[in-house]
Design a protein that fits this description.
Number of domains of chain B: 2
Distance between the termini of chain A: 42 Å
Largest sheet of chain A: 5 strands, antiparallel
Largest interface: A-B, 30 and 33 residues
Number of helices of chain B: 6
CATH superfamily of the largest domain in chain B: Transferase(Phosphotransferase) domain 1
Radius of gyration of chain A: 17 Å
Subcellular location (chain A): Nucleus
Protein name (chain A): EKC/KEOPS complex subunit CGI121
InterPro entries (chain A): CGI121/TPRKB, CGI121/TPRKB_sf
Distance between the termini of chain B: 44 Å
Bound molecules: adenosine-5'-triphosphate
CATH class of the largest domain in chain B: Mainly Alpha
Oligomer: heterodimer
Number of domains of chain A: 1
Shape of chain B: globular
CATH topology of the largest domain in chain B: Transferase(Phosphotransferase), domain 1
CATH class of chain A: Alpha Beta
CATH superfamily of chain A: CGI121/TPRKB
Organism (chain A): Rhizoclosmatium globosum
GO biological process, one term (chain A): tRNA threonylcarbamoyladenosine modification
Amino acid sequence: MENITQIPVPSLFNPYDPNAASTETPAEAKNGHPSVFYALLFQNVSNAKELKAKVIAGDPELPQCVMVNPALVLSSFQLQTACSRAYMNQAQNNMKTKTILSEILFSLSPSLNIAESMKLFGLSDNSNSIFVLVPSADDASVDETTINKLKNLVQGDLSPAHSFSDLTDLKLLKKVYKLNDAVDQSNTVLEDLIVGGIATKGFL
Amino acid sequence: MTLLSQGAEARVFKTSFGLKEVCIVKERFRKTYRHPVLDEKLSKRRTILEARCLVRAKKCGIDAPAVYLVDPVKSLIYMEFVEGETMKAFFNRELNDHAKRNEISTKIGTSLAKLHNADVVHGDLTTSNMMLRAGTESVVFIDFGLSFVSNLTEDKAVDLYVLERALASTHPQSHVLLDAILASYFKDVKDSKQVLKKLEDVRLRGRKRDQTG
Ligand SMILES: Nc1ncnc2c1ncn2[C@@H]1O[C@H](COP(=O)(O)OP(=O)(O)OP(=O)(O)O)[C@@H](O)[C@H]1O
């Protein structure tokens, strides 16, 4: 599966203190969520409109996945932090959207407006390329059935492994994440700021 | 997972975080003497403010650990592990390389001016709360646990005064370091005259306080 990038979703930190009153042990704190997401990149997609309709309708034909606009993705770590943030929200009963998959998409966005976030970071009718994030099976392996289903559903080319930044629309990314006034415009700092924005979103 | 530091306010752990092989998790712990509900509220607010100040600092062009995840419920900040040594260790090691000490002190002043120009007051400026990044030798401000946003020259002057006192109590020949820091700071900081004036006021108050004890 050399054309699939892995996005790990680490379990959340639990400072284990034997003296603390808490009875929680590291074993209990094990992640109750998929440990990896697989990121598939489809290019030359011709049926985005149809796919978007399926996503919105919650079509049962569509496997569990998150469809992301690659123009607004700079790195795999950006996706990892959005996943972590979403699973943390879920664990703390603090999700702003209905499902964990939409919560991941919402977490990616710096906007607090759900509809706007979905529009920017999700599919649009004329999307030409799509990142599809697929949660791993229970044993962290690639879920082949899901991937085959997706290959049938998405009319486009499953692209080989690539650098995430190749497809980034930097101008749009900076506008959406409000990074034009950042003093240091290097990709490293931009990534740090995006991730920092995802981490602190909605916290006042 | 290892415990790196156990301070008065927080514990600092080193662990990994998915794609990042190393990561710092800072846990602000509960104050048992405070009312639990109040304590939770304060810890939560403080954790969020620390994370926001870290991000704001980075945005204004200074080097600070990147924030990866904030957990206000458990009072945790997951952040970048900065490879390098503390400024305190550096100054203690490079006792005789005056050119180098001067170069780094100048960088500290420039960074601090950027931070203050973005209205971030650090709140705990010591040479233990700054690091020198390995490789790039960039000055990294860490521990924003007492930071806040303010445009008051008074707050910026107090920030400088805290640093001045910390340098004096930690480093021999501290005035040499301080002079270089302040020279570059006042070259770049906005409203430099007002901040300088305030700094003199704050020093005077400090001295009076010391005398009356
Ligand atoms: N991002 C980081 N990268 C590398 N080391 C770090 C980082 N953050 C903290 N440390 C290490 O942990 C120590 C304590 O961190 P920090 O000052 O943030 O915690 P604190 O509990 O507020 O400390 P104190 O109470 O001693 O002021 C630092 O002096 C530094 O050595």
